[in-house]
Amino acid sequence: MGCFPAGTRVSINNVDTLDIENINPGMSVLTHAGNIKTVKTKMLHYFTGNMHTFTIAGQTRKLTATDNHPILVRRYTKLPTQGEGICPVCGKHVKQVLTHIVRSKDQDHVSFYANLEASKYSYIESWMRADQIELGDYVVTPVYTENLQQPLVSDSLARICGFFLAEGSFEKYKGKYTAVQFNFAGTETDLHNTVLADLNELSLVTPSYQIRKDKNVGCISIYDSTLANRIYQLCGEYSKHKKLSQEIFEWPLSAKLKLLGAYIDGDGTWNKLNKVASCTTISKDLAYGVQKLAALCNLTASISEYMGKHNQTYLVSFAKSDTAELSKVAAKIPNEVYERKLIKLPVVFNDNGKLIKRVQGISIESVQDLPVYNLSVEDDESFVTENKENAEIFVKGVDSSSVYVNVSTRFTDGGEFGL
Fold it and tell me: Are 308 and 352 a contacting pair, CB within 8 Å?
């Protein structure tokens, strides 16, 4: 019976998470299918063996599970290495195999590349034991779908959230948020006017506006505690604590794009040489949140990090092929169309409402008598195990009228009971 250690965060609804050891029967959790189900049973036992820890793209927390825990995984067609090796087409030893194939113009290489492009999205999706997962596999993660009614979000609120994530901060009084402040370069008057117009749409309070010529800064402030607290709920606090709330991920597509566009206009840069848009932040949660939001918008974003002058800094870069789409919502991005040449799959992408995330690191640790937990939810009380002791734990722990070992789940259904 596969299980998770204490400290594993579990989504208990479409907004909050809780450590698995603090979840009890009767509470709700988000299942792999993207539905909210009620927990019927929580089981605890002591595990001796190998714990596998996975570093997964698009999320800040690592995932640790017992070696036999099933995880829904996609294994895509293996591509030639990006590094040094032998070209499978011409047999030459080259420093970058994949780059060599892409850049070669003879018919053999062109045909081979075309076949790679056609087959790169071919995959096998199955439940795999943790000890069967390999680097480069993709974990299939749910997006909450059950009874989901997308909230009504104004363009002004979406843009203000993007501008706040880029250049916003709060003023506090006795620990309470009383005002929101935005600081842009003094020359960015178009941004100043957009922010002022959006604030006037969102609040009855008139924002203050001044150009500080000594620092070449345009400062906009609005003393509206209701608006300040709303932005805090959606975007976190400031500096390292900025983030995207779960509510934002459930916004309509147009609102998500408006937020991304405002964030790029407020904090982004356009690299004219490489034709790439990027943003920087010292908030790890925000960087990975922007990457996830981009994936939900069917855009591709990658993350790199480096040590800045004072803080670890995260660089979020958008794919060159997404330039035309981003130009519709971000004034900084030119309306230019570039061919999509993604020989490699993105590390995080959206596929029919599922987030597909690449396994980027695996570590293994041997443990003895480690407390581990598992949950069963309504309509889903069945486990696969090769261990008789684990089967006995399940039989003793589950709260059901009928419990079997080595019997198909079809045995207990309406037909068997004459219903």
Answer: no
Rounded Cα distance, 271 and 277, in Å: 6
Q: Mean pLDDT score of the chain, rounded to an integer?
A: 86
Paired with 366 in beta bridges are 50
- Distances from the Cα of 62 to the Cα of 65, 280, 326, angstroms: 10, 23, 30
Instruction: Check: CB of residue 80 under 8 Å from CB of residue 101.
Output: yes
Query: Assign residue 85 a region: left if phi > 0, alpha if psi is -120 to 50, beta otherwise?
Result: left
**What six digits make up the tokens of 233?**
């709920």
Question: How far are the Cα atoms of 71, 329, 338 from residue 320, in angstroms, in the given order?
Answer: 33, 15, 7
**CA 155/CA 163 separation, integer angstroms:** 12
* 110 phi, psi to nearest 5 deg: -60, -45
Burial environment of residue 16 by CB neighbours within 10 A (0 to 12, 13 to 18, 19 or more): exposed
pLDDT reported for residue 220: 95
Residue-level pLDDT at 376: 83
Angle CA 122–127–133, to nearest 5: 75
Name the token pair of 111: 């045909």
C-alpha span between 371 and 66 (Å, rounded) = 11
- What are the start-end ranges of the H helices in 216-350? 225-235, 246-249, 253-267, 284-296, 323-327
> Which residues are 363's β-sheet partners?
53
The span from the CA of 320 to the CA of 355, in Å, is 21
Q: How far apart are CA 302 and CA 288, in angstroms?
A: 9
Q: How far apart (Å, rounded) are the C-alpha atoms in residues 335 and 329?
A: 10
**Residue-wise pLDDT tens digits, 34-52:** 778 888 888 898 999 999 9
Q: Give me the residues of the chain with pLDDT under 50, please.
A: 147, 410, 413-419
Handedness of CA 123, 124, 129, 134 (dihedral sign): negative
Neighbour-count burial of 108, counting CB atoms closer than 10 A to its CB (0-12 exposed, 13-18 middle, 19+ buried): exposed
pTM of the model: 0.78
Q: Which two tokens stand for residue 48?
A: 């001796």
Q: pLDDT digit string (tens) for 87-129? A: 999 999 998 888 888 889 899 998 988 888 777 778 999 999 9
- Helices 284-296 and 253-267, packing angle to 10 deg: 140
Rounded CA separation 74/65 (Å): 18
336 Cβ contact partners less than 8 Å away, ≥ 6 residues apart: 275, 323, 324, 327
